[in-house]
Amino acid sequence: MPKRSLIHLDFFKKPIDRSMFRIKAKQVGLPPGTLVHVGQQKTEKPVINLIDYDQTHLDSQADITIEEAAAVKETTTVSWINVSGIHDTGLIEAFGQHFDIHPLALEDILNTHHRPKIDEYEDFSLVILKMLFYDDQTHSITAEQISVLLGRGYVLSFQETEGDVFDGVRERIQRGNGKIRQRGPDYLAYALIDSIVDSYFHILEKVGDRLEQIEDDLICNPETEPLSSIYHYKRELLLLRKSVWPLREVINQMHKEASPLIKKSTQIYLRDLYDHTIQVIDTLEIFRDAMTGLQDLYMSTVSNRMNEIMKVLTIMASIFIPITFIAGVYGMNFEYMPELKWRWGYFAVWGFMAGCAIALLVYFRKKKWL
Amino acid sequence: MPKRSLIHLDFFKKPIDRSMFRIKAKQVGLPPGTLVHVGQQKTEKPVINLIDYDQTHLDSQADITIEEAAAVKETTTVSWINVSGIHDTGLIEAFGQHFDIHPLALEDILNTHHRPKIDEYEDFSLVILKMLFYDDQTHSITAEQISVLLGRGYVLSFQETEGDVFDGVRERIQRGNGKIRQRGPDYLAYALIDSIVDSYFHILEKVGDRLEQIEDDLICNPETEPLSSIYHYKRELLLLRKSVWPLREVINQMHKEASPLIKKSTQIYLRDLYDHTIQVIDTLEIFRDAMTGLQDLYMSTVSNRMNEIMKVLTIMASIFIPITFIAGVYGMNFEYMPELKWRWGYFAVWGFMAGCAIALLVYFRKKKWL
Amino acid sequence: MPKRSLIHLDFFKKPIDRSMFRIKAKQVGLPPGTLVHVGQQKTEKPVINLIDYDQTHLDSQADITIEEAAAVKETTTVSWINVSGIHDTGLIEAFGQHFDIHPLALEDILNTHHRPKIDEYEDFSLVILKMLFYDDQTHSITAEQISVLLGRGYVLSFQETEGDVFDGVRERIQRGNGKIRQRGPDYLAYALIDSIVDSYFHILEKVGDRLEQIEDDLICNPETEPLSSIYHYKRELLLLRKSVWPLREVINQMHKEASPLIKKSTQIYLRDLYDHTIQVIDTLEIFRDAMTGLQDLYMSTVSNRMNEIMKVLTIMASIFIPITFIAGVYGMNFEYMPELKWRWGYFAVWGFMAGCAIALLVYFRKKKWL
Amino acid sequence: MPKRSLIHLDFFKKPIDRSMFRIKAKQVGLPPGTLVHVGQQKTEKPVINLIDYDQTHLDSQADITIEEAAAVKETTTVSWINVSGIHDTGLIEAFGQHFDIHPLALEDILNTHHRPKIDEYEDFSLVILKMLFYDDQTHSITAEQISVLLGRGYVLSFQETEGDVFDGVRERIQRGNGKIRQRGPDYLAYALIDSIVDSYFHILEKVGDRLEQIEDDLICNPETEPLSSIYHYKRELLLLRKSVWPLREVINQMHKEASPLIKKSTQIYLRDLYDHTIQVIDTLEIFRDAMTGLQDLYMSTVSNRMNEIMKVLTIMASIFIPITFIAGVYGMNFEYMPELKWRWGYFAVWGFMAGCAIALLVYFRKKKWL
Amino acid sequence: MPKRSLIHLDFFKKPIDRSMFRIKAKQVGLPPGTLVHVGQQKTEKPVINLIDYDQTHLDSQADITIEEAAAVKETTTVSWINVSGIHDTGLIEAFGQHFDIHPLALEDILNTHHRPKIDEYEDFSLVILKMLFYDDQTHSITAEQISVLLGRGYVLSFQETEGDVFDGVRERIQRGNGKIRQRGPDYLAYALIDSIVDSYFHILEKVGDRLEQIEDDLICNPETEPLSSIYHYKRELLLLRKSVWPLREVINQMHKEASPLIKKSTQIYLRDLYDHTIQVIDTLEIFRDAMTGLQDLYMSTVSNRMNEIMKVLTIMASIFIPITFIAGVYGMNFEYMPELKWRWGYFAVWGFMAGCAIALLVYFRKKKWL
After folding, report:
1. What is the pLDDT along chain B (370 residues), one digit of tens a residue?
2. Structural Rg of chain C based on CA atoms
3. Are E103 and E33 in contact (CB under 8 A)?
4. Residue closest to C140 by CA, chosen among C226, C233, C8
5. Half-sphere exposure of A224 (CA within 13 A, CB side)
6. Spatial contact of C230 and C292, defined as CB atoms under 8 Å apart
7. Nearest to B180 among A20, A31, A309 (CB)
8. Which chains touch D (3 or more CB pairs under 8 A)?
9. Residue B61 C-alpha, separation from nearest chain C C-alpha, in angstroms
10. Dihedral-angle region of residue B192 (phi above 0 means left; psi in -120 to 50 means alpha; beta otherwise)
């Protein structure tokens, strides 16, 4: 009785991330620009942080009120206001009023199902991106939406939760001697997006490691059934592609269509960013091709194991079938069967049966089936 | 005797929606612009409703005559005339005369086989869309064609039946304090199309739920044969794609090619609408990829179950074949078979046969086939 | 002995239309513009018909000479000269001389292997199309090439045989009160092409019916082997695609690139025609997708039936193999086999064998293989 | 013992044309424009032929020296110098000096691995094409590179071997009354390219015949294993595609980008040529689709034959297994087996076994497996 | 017992080049333009070589310091500074300062994971390419990144290790009479890139040889299991494609977008280079198609061998099953079995069994299964 099937489905008992199937529709008929949070509430209370700087001056405040945040809007310094937690529509609306943001942009910030995109308004540009995190335990990737709003003299960033990939940017601002302090909000927005794209390389590093491991599993322990890994892996790649592909167009548009908000000196950095995005996409495509190759190989391996089982057993059957027939013949009860009387008949039959079996074995070996 | 096959075809007994195969050709040789209703008659008597409004004034009338409807054409207010039921070619022709609509546009309104499209005429723009409804009982999607005709000062909408997704719009007009009352017919047309695209998200929500359920079925009850669900689901996605893909081009054209009928202030809403359409299409593509993945998995599962059956039975056969041969040998009737006389011959043979069987079992287990 | 195989190849005995493999090359090295008829001669004697009309006047003549036809060239009326039968190169050459047609255009008219195309010359435009006919008996589609030459004041149409889809146009001209009598030759050319595209919908109607029938066959009588239908159907769709796809580009070019021969008032009709062509192409694509789905389903069904056969028989084998072995054991001729002497030995063995068989059946049912 | 396998590999013993795998790299680091012959030397001694003509005059010389050829360069007549054999780099270099040809163009002429392309230089245009020949014996296609260099007042053509498809052009020049004598070198170049494209139709004719024959083989003699034909055929199509696809772009470029070397009167012929190229490509695509269809069908047929074999044999097995068991039962040697003593026991058992067999046959037939 | 499976996985024990899965992310949050070496350190100490030349003068120095190298920057001669070894970020930074190179360009030079690309800065252009090497032992391809920086009057080239494909260029410069000495740095840059593309043809030559060999293996020794070769080969092609495809766009951009750094006289060489790149890509595509064809063929062959094994054995089984049944019948112990008493019963049964077997053999042969 078989204890292990060729393909195990147990892995499905593991919770699969199906968030990508969970489309949340806002109520039909709401006017456009209605502020409704679409997505999961991931944090309890939104936190507003402010970093306000120019070449000589630096002011960093944590957990401030929106009024405090709005106060820096008119200053000539660069103000970076980061909001963690976007489920509070009242807060987002207040931002809209203080910073004079178009309701459609606010609606976009609240809807976490967006693909990466850029929308240019008269006074500001809104870039929506996905921040990706890799969980080393479950080997799963989670995505968090981040909206970067570049206005005149300020940058607003809205994240779903606290915890982001911007610590490097914060440090560079703190340090004070870098390029970032000498440049405007456009460079800051670029630096934020650049951090996100850089973080994709870390995800790819992990995903590449995992691909190697799946390959190793397939080679060394084909019976560990890597199908589960393959299935999960493909979903991860699907999610990655969904997050990264549109980014290419977003950054290309930022680079090519000169918005007045983006200085010429920043353009060259955007081109560099574009190259990085292409690199991410290229790597994803290579992973996908390699994955397909592995899947084909796995399928061949499974089918080959089955074939081998069938072959062994059928060869065994086909050797014993003729000699069982011979044994059957001499089990017949005819009165006149001369061989039965022969002194050496029994041993002759044994010899004949052995001969048959050996002949068949030789034939199979010659045919290279054995 | 097998009571359950691996794949059930019973589901085909359920009526499948084949409306997409039913092409209805109008009579060949009719002059272009001939008004012929192409499609099913879905309602008994066309009903004309009118909502006429501007910032201060609101007039809402149900089931009026065409002459009453035409009377509001020249007013400076925004007039929304909604017609439910388009099989009455006489009525449509009368609309053509009263509102000076090109016969080709009338012909398009009457032909319900259109893909979504926009046609710009000198005095008006005609947008043809599909309204989709999800039936929770049969999990099937039905489509209804809707034509939105944006003229100077009025919007005409033609539906196949009563019952639509515009109640939200009607409410916002009634409420009187919204943006919609301050804006022109272009914004009204946008609001109608926006309602339709919003309703697609509801369909996607249902379709996503169903996808999860099919996945669950596949994992927990592989013997419930989800092939029927998969086949139906693929048809639904085909229908959705057919209705939604061309919409992208339609809305892009509305947004990019500045028609004099559409004010600049409305353009920004159209860009937002375009983003939503892209989101719908993206989700559809993800569903399709996930579906393909599931189908592959299902196929592997079926093939694996078959392999498992074959393996079990063949292993059984290959253990009994050699020992049946041995039993056959000692069933031979040779006069001189020394073993037969041995006191413990019978038990020795039993022992030998058991040994063979155990050796084979060990070999199979070592080969990891067991 | 098997009387019916899973897949029948008998249908191949039916004549398949292989006309699309029959490329007829004209003799290499002939100068371009040499008039050679490429294709089958489908009619005996070419017939020239003339309809000459303007708003007030109508003159219709059948089977006239080319000189009579050429006489109307210079009149201010719209002249439609229809030629049925194009194998007579002399006649086509004479047309070339009387109507001053470029030799390359004449060569194109004579070569029936063209894909739909439009060529604009200085004084005329040549549109080459395929007229399609559906044979209800054989469910096959035949194509006939038609060339529509729009000149100043006249339209020439060249068909391979008599019998076309233009009766509606003729009737509208006869009736005299329609739009067609008030407009020029560009509208006439449009009306002809429109009739052809309209006729495609009829073909699609038939093809859609056939698709439903194939689906029914597959569901209700899977043993009628619909593979033949599927194979034929795919060829038909291939032929349709070949005839219709290029048409899209042809009509788009007529619509977009304003030829002086086409009046602005006719442009709007061309846009409508373009929409219809897109509709035809869309439907073709849906049919193709549905066909692929059906083929997959058919393949699963065949493979499933095979699996079922294998399963039944292998289960039977695996129940009888162990009990046959037991019977073999007690057929051995050892002198000392205590069971053989037992009073109830025979019945005990029967019981044991029945027990084995039942245990196996229970196991198989528990495994859901039965 | 099987005498015929389902798939034969013997055809591989036939020499396959692998020329397309044989990439010949010139020595790395040679300066660009270095003249190295890349390809096989196909002829012994290059032969130069000259045809010099205008409307009134014709001069045709065979096997002349390069100095004689260069002498006609400055005349006002049209000079066509055809070189057969390009392995002599000295000769090509001499041409370069006499006709002032850019070294890169000379390098291209010598490298026979080029895809079809057009390069426009200041004083001349170089078109590189493939001449295709079909070998009726081996059903294989061979390609020969031809370079047509259109200069002011002359056309140079370089072929790998003698023997081409230009005899028709030569004849038309000789005849003297055709269009070709009245026109310039641009028309001559066009006529040469046109001859090549015309010759493709002959190849397609042959290839189409072969496709029909493969189909016939598949239908009437499925055991002749058409896999070899299919494999060869696909390679042929691959080679054809490689030679023809880029041509489309070449001729489009000649047609669209007005080179000063090409007169306006010749443009119309280039458009016609473009149409022919499209026709060739269309036909190739249809052949490819048909080929894929045939391959699918072949695979189904092979798999179906295997299934049929398995089915017949398994049915046989499953009928005999139960009745063999019964025979085994009554072969047991129990002392007390009442049936054995019955007078009609033997015949009753025969009857019972026949009943079992018939019941199974009926069941199988009811299940439509027989 | 089977000694050889149909598919061997031993080849996996060979080290596979997985460098393409090893994505190395630089630390997140580093400012753009931070100089970090990304890749493996392949050499110990960077070596700087200088060749400085014009038409009359030549100066070649090996292993110089950066200050020596920078000294030639302002001269009117062409200076080619080649750096082997890029892991020393200090050195690269020094180059940046001496030659006034943008930090982003320096960052690109240090990151060896780039796809081929061209970045145009104000004062220089940076071209990043892959140099490929073929290892005849392991049949594997290794890639090395090379950055060519074209400035005003100088060319910098940065390689990962010593050893390159530029010896031909060096020789041509040394020789002194070639075109290269008369032209500027743009021609030098072109010559370097041209050497790299030329070297690709050598790789293709080797890869083509290998493809032939795999084909031979498949045909002559199908049991050598070429799956390992196929799998490796596909990875090699994947790597090649990754290195070559983007090159097409790079060279097209150099050719089309006239940079002031590239003289018009060099443009024509770039067009030639573009053609070569297309040729490389075309060949890669053909190899890929041929590979796919081979893989299909291999799969058919494996499946066919399995089918053949099954067929032989099943035929054997189905011949012996009925006659074993007959032997079983006459092994029954009924008291009254008339045949047993017959004198020739035993021989008659032998005859009957032989007849059965022969009849089955004839039937199978008639069915062409044998």
Report:
1. 333 333 333 333 333 455 555 555 555 567 777 777 777 766 678 899 999 998 888 989 988 998 888 888 888 899 999 999 888 888 999 999 999 999 889 988 988 888 899 988 888 999 999 999 888 887 788 888 999 999 988 999 999 888 888 988 898 898 877 788 888 899 999 999 999 998 898 888 888 888 888 777 776 665 555 566 777 777 778 878 888 888 998 999 888 877 888 888 888 899 889 988 988 888 888 888 878 777 777 777 777 777 777 777 778 888 888 888 888 888 888 888 888 888 888 888 889 989 999 998 898 888 777 6
2. 34
3. yes
4. C233
5. 12
6. no
7. A31
8. C, E
9. 34
10. alpha
Question: 3-class DSSP state for residue B146?
Answer: strand
CA distance A40 to chain E (A): 27
Paired with A60 in beta bridges are A51
- Which stretches within A221-263 are classed as H helix? 227-256
Note whether D333 contacts C328, CB cutoff 8 Å. no
- Residue contact E6–A278, C-beta within 8 A: no
Please give the structure tokens belonging to residue D118: 């057009």
Q: Which residues lie below 8 Å from residue E137, measured CB to CB, with a gap of 6+?
A: none
What is the chain B residue with the closest CA to A318?
Answer: B321
Q: Do C78 and C190 form a contact (C-beta atoms < 8 A)?
A: no
Query: Residues of A with CB below 8 A from B182's CB?
Result: none
Maximum distance among all Cα pairs of chain C, rounded to whole angstroms: 121
At residue C156, the 3 state secondary structure works out as strand
Q: How far apart are CA C367 and CA C363, in angstroms?
A: 6
CB contact under 8 A, D318 and C312: yes
Contacts 24+ apart (CB under 8 A), E131-136: E131/E159, E131/E164, E131/E165, E131/E196, E131/E199, E132/E199, E132/E200, E132/E203, E132/E240, E132/E243, E134/E202, E134/E203, E134/E206, E134/E207, E136/E206
Kindly list the residues from chain A whose CB atom is less than 8 angstroms away from the CB atom of residue E331. 328, 331-333
Neighbours of chain A (3+ CB pairs under 8 A): B, E
ipTM over 0.85: no
CA A347, CA E104: separation in Å to the nearest integer?
Answer: 90
Among C121, C106, C122, smallest CA distance to C158 is for: C106
Phi/psi of residue E178, each to 5°? Answer: -80, 175
Instruction: Give the SS3 label for residue E336.
Output: coil
Which of D201, D308, D334 faces C2 most closely, judged by CB atoms? D308
- The answer to whether the CB atoms of E325 and D328 lie below 8 A apart is no
H helices of D42-184, where? 66-71, 89-99, 103-110, 167-175
Q: What is the DSSP letter of B111?
A: B
CB–CB of C333 and B328 under 8 A?
no
Beta-bridge partner residues of E49: E82
Q: Do E316 and A322 touch (CB under 8 A)?
A: yes
User: Which chains touch E (3+ CB pairs under 8 A)?
Assistant: A, D
Strands of C78-84's sheet, edge to edge?
C58-61, C47-53, C78-84, C154-159, C140-150, C125-135, C117-120
Among the partner-chain residues C201, C219, C312, the one whose CB lies closest to the CB of B23 is C201
Q: What is the DSSP letter of A331?
A: T
**Nearby residues of D36 by Cβ (< 8 Å), 6 or more positions away:** D26, D27, D30, D89, D107, D110, D111
Contact C304 B345 (CB under 8 A): no
Closest residue of B to C180, CA-based? B31
* DSSP H/E element including C142: strand C140-150
In angstroms and rounded to an integer, the radius of gyration of the C-alpha atoms of chain A is: 34
DSSP classification of residue D13: G
- E85 touches E42 (CB < 8 A): yes
Q: Do E195 and D28 touch (CB under 8 A)?
A: yes
**Token output for A165:** 């990939």
